[in-house]
Amino acid sequence: xxxxxxxxxxxxGAAALALTLAACGGADDxxxxxxxxxxxxxxxxxxxxxxxxxxxxxxxxxxxxxxxIREVExxxxxxxxxxxxxxxxxxxxxxxxxxFEQQLVVQAEGGNAPDLAIIPxxxxxxxxVRDGYVKAPAESVVANVDEGWSExxxxxxxxxxxxxxxxxxxxxxxxxxxxxxxxxxNGYEVPTTWDELMTLTQTIADEQGSETVKPWCxxxxxxxxxxxxxxxxxxxxxxxxxxxxxxxxxxxxxIPFNDPQIVEAVDMxxxxxxxxxxxxxxxxxxxxxxxxxxxxxxxxxxxxxxFMYRMASFYEAQWPEGTEVGPDGDVFAFYLPGETADETPLxxxxxxxxxxxxxxxxxxxxxxxxxxxxxNTRVEIGGVTSANKGxxxxxxxxxxxxxxxxxxxxxxxxxxxxxxxxxPSEVGxxxxxxxxxxxxxxxxxxxxLDQIEAAWPAx
Length: 459
Fold this sequence. Notes:
Elements: H1 9-21, E1 43-44, E2 47-48, E3 62-67, H2 71-79, H3 82-88, E4 91-96, H4 100-109, E5 116-119, H5 122-130, H6 139-148, H7 151-156, E6 158-159, E7 162-163, E8 166-172, E9 175-178, H8 180-186, H9 194-208, E10 214-216, H10 228-241, H11 243-251, H12 260-273, H13 294-297, E11 306-310, E12 332-335, E13 346-355, H14 360-369, H15 372-381, H16 399-409, E14 415-417, H17 419-422, H18 425-440, H19 445-454
Parallel strand pairs: 3-4, 3-5, 10-11, 13-14
Antiparallel strand pairs: 1-2, 5-13, 6-7, 8-13, 9-11, 9-12
Helix pairs in contact: 6-14, 10-11, 10-12, 18-19
């Protein structure tokens, strides 16, 4: 694992002063050793605080973080700051909202922006930067990002040539969750091509199909972000049918949203999501997808009411407590196949920590969140992955997440970031999301894509 970069002068002065006054404050060095400022044996309440000395102490200060993270994952995120808070004195207060994308804009425009925001859409980050709300990060944040992430990942947090937001968690989206036991009991094999996937789908429909049992289950409800799981499905198919070049042209609007190649991909996804024989096992008809929470969408697999659920690696955190995730467990995941077995493109996504207010305590929290140490702490808690190069895959809480980390760390991986997250927010977090809801509810592909194309900003 790599050593964490030293805090910059903006924090170092305060940290040095704090270290003369408190037993706990200072630097983390996962490679052993310890970095400047304080004794490696300092403790707080039994916690070894030598790993946090570089951050200084800020007794009585608090930093608030706003995100779209809720439920189990929100509790896990809060747990990742336990020792940091104990040693630095900074109370980290996280608030998650299903209306995050809209509320972040409202709060910033109203002069009530959070200290830090975890933004999953580079398009939304670009909007907030260009509107003047996001502050430049401390040099210590930049140093951690340069150490831990690839240039591509740093680029997603860069706007108009200036770096603003540090990568945080990451995910591989190109997965299909299933029950290994159900597959084994019925003689089904994991498909390795798209044609095999569709053949398997039809076989399950023929052998298992009923009013309550279907090959697939799905859910795209997500509060104010309703629709994003459907955009993910479309993006995965575009990446498989058109390859990286067409995908990049589409995301960059070099070809229109209603280009025939995109129409073809949407209809391929619709062959599953809008087919009453194929969806929505254990829940309802195809239109029930629009009102089913993505959190709940895959749960019918546990009851044998559906066999497959396309959802990212982070879905592991949504399975009920006690669910065994593994190749011989209650649930596992396979790679969403490409057109051939040799084609394995990855759709990936991530989150970026942006600063909206200035203080040394805020800089300390943002720097910690940009470190490989925070990433390892969060990955070990469970349910998530990271593209940080310093993360140990063995800390992952399941075989699926371990595989995702290994895929993310491959230098030659053919991967593309979530398209709707890269698009202008008016489209990616707006017309694309709402258009997919209309599409699931019965609207024709051509009409929906025309509508999304018309929403693309002129400049």
